[in-house]
Design the sequence.
């Protein structure tokens, strides 16, 4: 299994790159990215502008490049061609501004830390080197743990939790981080309904605070209720616009050759248009 250390947000410091006035929350320009040894690019000439307060679903089948794009936005991978700017600054320039919830399978849950310690990782970006968390950090962590109904397990190792609880820990860490751009990679996978509802409440809350949310998913059924915009990716952008405009049978058929069963939120192989 591919695993990323849970400590990837563990870099302290003061934010020194202010938001550029009037800049989009995210500006991706002509991004092309090929993994080492791969014969074809995972992303091909991707351009995308997202304004503050948008709630964007990044949609596409397995292998479409969703995780790759999210990692490039989070500054965890670097593309040799194209640019990614976040509130006017290059990706990776300011970790205060971007929170990233990785795909569940890419986290090493055996990492020996407690729930509270993981949520505190969301605060590390706000701390200078060697500075210990202060009251403001502990308060933010307590609030996030409470909001995610994790009080009872706050001092347990994350490995001892259920899948739904672990996902709530990642959400709590994101809340504690207090970032302007929130990236979530397939957060709905294997979540029970109450946890899904809780997650969408959190997204709503985050957007109401003027922040920007990008969530990757292959569940089309959730789009109309929870997102303002859908970006369909299949190595390149195949459709992009308000959910009600993009989510038409014609677009889906043209983009993927799939039929949508909206109520079940699943898609079938269909005839190519
Ligand atoms: P998605 O998240 O939409 O399922 P990914 O971004 O994970 O898609 O993958 C896009 C393409 O890049 C796929 O063909 C996948 O096999 C390939 N890929 C993903 N991660 C790596 C990697 N670390 N090394 C090589 N190829 C990769
Ligand atoms: Mg993925």
Sequence:
């Amino acid at each position: 299994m591919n695993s990323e250390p849970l400590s990837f947000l563990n870099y302290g410091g003061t934010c020194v790159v202010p938001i550029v006035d009037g800049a989009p929350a995210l500006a991706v320009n002509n991004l092309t990215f090929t993994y080492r040894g791969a014969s074809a690019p995972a992303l091909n000439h991707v351009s995308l502008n997202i304004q503050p307060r948008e709630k964007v679903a990044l949609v596409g089948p397995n292998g479409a490049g969703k995780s790759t794009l999210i990692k490039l936005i989070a500054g965890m991978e670097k593309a040799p061609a194209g640019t990614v700017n976040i509130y006017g600054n290059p990706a990776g320039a300011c970790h205060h501004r971007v929170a990233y919830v990785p795909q569940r399978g890419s986290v090493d849950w055996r990492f020996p830390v407690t729930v509270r310690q993981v949520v505190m990782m969301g605060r590390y970006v706000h701390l200078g080197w060697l500075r210990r968390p202060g009251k403001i950090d502990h308060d933010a962590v307590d609030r996030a743990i409470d909001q995610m109904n994790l009080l009872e397990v706050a001092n347990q190792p994350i490995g001892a939790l259920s899948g739904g609880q672990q996902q709530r820990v990642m959400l709590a860490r994101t809340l504690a981080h207090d970032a302007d751009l929130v990236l979530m990679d397939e957060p709905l996978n294997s979540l029970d309904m109450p946890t899904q509802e809780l997650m969408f409440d959190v997204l709503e809350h985050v957007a109401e605070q003027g922040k920007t949310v990008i969530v990757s998913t292959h569940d089309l059924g959730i789009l109309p209720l929870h997102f303002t915009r859908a970006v369909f990716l299949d190595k390149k952008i195949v459709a992009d616009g308000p959910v009600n405009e993009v989510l038409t049978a014609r677009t889906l058929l043209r983009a993927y050759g799939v039929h949508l069963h909206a109520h079940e939120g699943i898609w079938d192989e269909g005839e190519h248009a």
Notes: The helical segments are 66-74, 115-124, 135-147, 163-177, 193-208, 223-226, 243-246, 249-256.
